[in-house]
Specification:
alpha/beta, 8-stranded mixed beta sheet, Rossmann fold, single chain, 6 helices, 3-stranded mixed beta sheet
């Protein structure tokens, strides 16, 4: 009897010891599986999914994007009908050579002189595929169109009815059509087919497509065409514009031709101001040296022709520009 009791007691003690050891290791295992608990330096660093992995190096800060387009917000230079011819001329050319925007990345594509055009490449205005360029008034110079298509892979729609060249594809990306841009749709006595920019966009199904660059060099017709563009709202999705403006002196055939006077300066000024009032701001200009003449009003050397380059500020967000309320050297 005594021997049986001893055996029973030993069995109970052995069973209790096993249970105790089992519970101990279960609790110990839970502690070991707690992230960061009882870790040795050489332990394998395994972390539960979803938790950031520990690193000895601090995380690099996310770079802050600094705007690359500077905008000058100041009262405009005025040209008014109560000015004399010399005063109107002086203020008009000051206005013409005033820049309201500085693009940190301003590139000239094509020839550095006549035949090239400036493009603001600062983000978000740069030429990024897929990009579309409209080019009116080719003449015999394809430098800009070739550069835009070959360097940046943009599709170029080129038009000119005056160069006796039939419709063709200059390259896989450049399409030429024997058509011209005008303030209305019509056919000239010479048989040229003319359309408004709005009609071109409609025909090409681009009414709701962003146009990266619109270039036109149309020999004094730009004034009525710009007014037409603003009236029909066809510039709404045009990101940049480059065009050559011309004064009356472009047509100086004889000494009796009337020079540009106050009335003409005011008209040209008002059209360019309308462009600014639609939030197109000038980022560059270039005086054409081949159009130079001596003014009879101020006796200064002027030019009949200026290339003007604008960006559509309506397509920029506030955090994409730096605004200046004072003039600065960067704008000159």
């Amino acid at each position: 009897m005594f021997v049986r009791r001893r055996r029973r007691l030993l069995i109970y003690l052995l069973f209790g010891a096993v249970v105790f050891v089992g519970v101990y290791y279960i609790l110990l295992g839970r502690q070991e599986n707690t992230p960061g608990k009882h870790r040795q330096k050489d332990d394998i660093d395994i972390w539960p999914i979803g938790l950031p992995k520990r690193t000895e190096k601090p995380l690099k800060p996310i770079p802050i994007l600094v705007p690359q387009i500077h905008v000058k917000e100041m009262p405009p230079i005025l040209v008014s009908s109560d000015m004399s011819d010399s005063e109107a001329e002086e203020y008009f050319f000051k206005f013409l050579e005033n820049k309201d925007v500085k693009c940190n990345n301003d590139q000239r594509l094509g020839h550095q002189h006549d035949g090239g055009w400036n493009v603001c490449m600062s983000p978000p205005m740069g030429l990024v595929q897929p990009c579309i360029v409209y080019s009116f008034g080719i003449g015999t110079d394809w430098q800009f169109d070739d550069a835009v298509s070959k360097i940046y892979g943009c599709r170029v729609l080129a038009y000119d009815p005056s160069i006796n060249t039939r419709d063709h594809n200059r390259s896989a990306l450049i399409q030429f059509r024997e058509l011209g841009i005008a303030p209305k749709n019509f056919e000239t006595p010479a048989g040229w087919q003319m359309k408004t920019l709005g009609q071109f966009l409609k025909d090409n199904k681009h009414q709701n497509t962003y146009i990266n660059y619109l270039k036109f060099d149309i020999e004094y017709s730009e004034w009525k065409v710009i007014e037409s563009m603003l009236e029909e709202g066809s510039l709404r999705k045009v990101k940049q514009i480059g065009f050559e403006m011309h004064s009356r002196e472009l047509f100086k055939v004889s000494k009796i031709d009337l020079p540009t006077g106050t009335e003409d300066f005011v008209r040209m000024y008002q059209i360019l101001r309308k462009l600014e009032q639609h939030n197109f701001r000038k980022f560059n200009y270039r005086k054409n040296p081949f159009g130079e003449y001596k003014s009879i009003h101020t006796k200064k050397l002027r030019s009949c022709c200026y290339e003007l380059h604008y960006v559509n500020m309506n397509l920029l967000k506030p955090n994409e520009t730096i605004v200046h309320t004072k003039d600065a050297p960067m704008f000159h």
